[in-house]
Amino acid sequence: MPTGIFYSTQSGDDTTWNDIDFHSNIVNNTLGSFLTYDGNTSILIRDITPGKNANIISAKLKMFAINLGLGNYDNDTANENIYFEDTVNPVAPTKLSEALALEIRLTSPVAWNAIEHWTTGQWYWSPDFSNAFQSIVNKPNWLSGKNAQIVLLNNGSTNNAFRALAAYDYSSAQYRPEFHVEWSPAETGYGLGTTSADQISFSPKWDSYKRGKKQSAIHNRSRSSKLNIYNYGSYKRIVIETEFLEADRAAEVNSWWDSGTKVQFHINSGNSSGVYSMMIMNESTPFAQYNKPHTDRMTGRIELEGY
């Protein structure tokens, strides 16, 4: 799978603030609680490679711990929530009012509780927040090469339990935060859903998409074993093998199969496009296996037939 490391590229791309103060173009950002104030940070990451509807497998921040010269405040409980600004055209805040406004236009949070104690001069990882990044690359106007803004907000840390990380302006940017991503490209524009407005995007294995057997038929047997009679008819059969599908989306497909829900299959790939009314005709559950070692990604096979 493709991997990449992405960064802020200029002074002012990362900022830190609390309810009364805002700082940009400084050497450190703060997590947790600094004195009695929130440690909130934004990091604008530029020129990100994964394209629209890419399947985000892993997304983490790597940060370098520095000492603010204020004593050892790293031994109490620090908690943060990790977000993205919920837009494909983010702009780094330049003053407190903009930072506070940023706090109300965010993706769903990913909790980072009980942040480990940091030692000055060491690198540390955030938890995975791929679901938050997935919501960004799935936006209609997302394209490869766009920017995304990560936002970290204090979430009930003990007073003075803060972690100081190097900012872009620290030591000529050589210790700036790193955004590490693993993904699989959305090579084909395939979507499945109960309506055109709510589609699950798929990235099939390169050789697994089998399109449209179109045939004249007298008899066509459905999954429920009822016999459907056609004088002159045709149907399309589509088989998709896919992997690294989010577990909640896989569960949604499984529920459509289990209930016999009619679905729409959308194709927008190369010179092919169309919308087909289909039903999921698998003999067994479409998604029943995890992509090990992941416990939030599924692999499976979807067998569709037109009606």
Quick one: CATH class of the largest domain? Mainly Beta
User: What is the CA-based Rg, rounded?
Assistant: 24 Å
The helix-and-strand class reads mainly beta
The counted number of beta strands is 21
Share of helix, binned:
under 10%
Query: Which stretches are low in confidence, meaning pLDDT under 50 for 5 or more residues running?
Result: 206-210, 212-233
Percent strand equals: 35-45%
CATH topology group of the largest domain: Jelly Rolls
How many domain units? 2
Largest sheet: 8 strands, antiparallel
What is the distance, rounded to the nearest whole angstrom, between the alpha carbons of the first and last residues?
A: 36 Å
Q: Write down the overall geometry.
A: elongated
Based on the structure given, which CATH architecture of the largest domain is correct? Sandwich
Specify the number of helices. 3
H/E element order: EEEEEEEHEEHEEEEEEEEHEEEE
Q: Give the mean pLDDT.
A: 84
Report on this structure.
With 307 residues, this protein is mainly β. The protein has 2 domains: 3-184, Jelly Rolls (Sandwich), CATH 2.60.120; 190-306. Helix content is 9%, strand content 43%. It contains 3 helices and 21 strands. It has helices at 96-102, 130-137, 247-259; strands at 3-6, 14-17, 22-24, 28-34, 37-45, 55-64, 80-84, 110-112, 123-125, 148-154, 162-166, 178-184, 190-195, 198-202, 217-221, 227-233, 237-246, 262-269, 272-280, 287-290, 297-306. The strands form 4 sheets. Strands 2, 3, 4, 5, 7, 8, 10 and 11 form an 8-stranded antiparallel β-sheet that branches. Strands 13, 14, 17, 18, 19, 20 and 21 form a 7-stranded antiparallel β-sheet that branches. A hairpin with a 4-residue loop joins strand 2 (14-17) and strand 3 (22-24). The radius of gyration is 24 Å and the shape is elongated. The protein starts with a strand and ends with a strand. Residues 206-210 and 212-233 have low confidence and may be disordered.
